[in-house]
Structures are given as C-alpha cells and as structure tokens.
Design goal:
The protein is of the alpha/beta class. Helix content is about 35%, strand content about 20%. The protein has a 5-stranded mixed β-sheet, with helices on one face.
Length: about 180
C-alpha cells in the first residue's frame, strides 16, 4: 500500500512539473530600439567542429547575430519546429547564423534527421554541431530540448526560449530581425 501511494505521488509530481514547464514557454521580447533596458550576459564562447569537420568558434562567425538552437532527433517538438526555423533563417541569410546543437547520443540519428531537412538548409548560415556529452549545452544552462538562445552582434544573450515555438509569428520575426540589425 505504501509503495502504491509513493508511486502515485511521484506520478502527480512529474505531471505538475510538466505543466509548469509548459507554462514558461514565452518568447523573449525583442530588444528595444533605444538599446536594452536590462543588462544582458555575454554568451560563453566555444569552439566546435561542424559536421564537415571544420573548426569554428562562436565569436568568430561572420554573421551579425546568432540563433543558438539546442535540439535532438528523438524530440517530437524539435522535429515539428525545425522546418519552420529553417524557413525563417533563410530570410536572414548572411545576417543571422543558426548554430544547431544536437544532443543526440547517436551521431547517425542526427545526420539522418538533418538529411531530411536538406533542401531547407540550402542558402542559410547553418552550423550543425554534435554535442553528445552536453559540453556546449551545460554552460548555457540548457536542461531540456528544444531550447533557443538569441545572441546579438555584441555576443550578448538577448533572450532564451525554452520549449518549441512557432517561428512564423510576428514576435519571433521581430526578434530575429533585431539580431540582423
């Protein structure tokens, strides 16, 4: 009987956590045109090898702004939002980079997922990264996917969006455009 009560309590607790997590999916506001009203933190710089093996650094990317997107191939919300994210990034080619950090343990699963997105990846500043040990995810405080961090031209984080989103809404488009300005 005690075990049954413990299991039911644990299930209720997990359910409450899930509801609370869903409740915090609020897109960050775009930075104000007069400058940021609140100080933002600098993004941790990191080096990575993209899937072609080329070494890169977050701070050395040539684009003005960066969308740092954490995802995994097994994540249903990630799979739903990825095509929309790629379409929005195509509108900002050369101005905003998409650094897509996969936390997949299986590199092949990540590569197969990206292969399905092949046409959408054309003509965008796209840097896929494999992070199975979460060496990049942890310094950014990422505990669940999808999660997106928006980084301005000054390498400061201007917003963090936990959970999936509709990339084709006015607020997200304004935020992405502000990264390109």
């Amino acid at each position: 009987m005690k075990l049954k009560v413990l299991v039911l309590t644990l299930i209720a607790f997990i359910g409450i956590l899930a509801v609370l997590h869903d409740g915090i999916r609020v897109p960050p506001p775009p930075p104000s045109s007069s400058g940021s009203s609140a100080p933002s933190l600098p993004a941790p710089d990191f080096s990575f090898a993209d899937l072609s093996g080329r070494k890169r650094s977050l701070y050395a990317l040539p684009e003005k702004g960066i969308v740092l997107h954490f995802w995994a191939s097994w994540c249903a919300p990630c799979a739903l939002e990825f095509p929309s994210l790629l379409r929005e990034m195509k509108k900002r080619e050369g101005d905003v980079a998409l650094v897509a950090v996969s936390i997949d343990e299986d590199k092949g699963a990540m590569e197969r997922f990206l292969a399905k997105q092949d046409q959408a990846k054309n003509n965008i500043s796209f840097y896929p990264v494999w992070d199975p040990r979460k060496e990049i995810s942890l310094p950014f405080g990422t505990v669940a996917v999808p999660e997106t961090i928006f980084i301005g031209s000054d390498h400061r984080m201007v917003g963090k969006l936990p959970g999936g989103t509709d990339w084709n809404n006015d607020a997200m488009q304004r935020l992405l455009q502000s990264l390109a300005d």
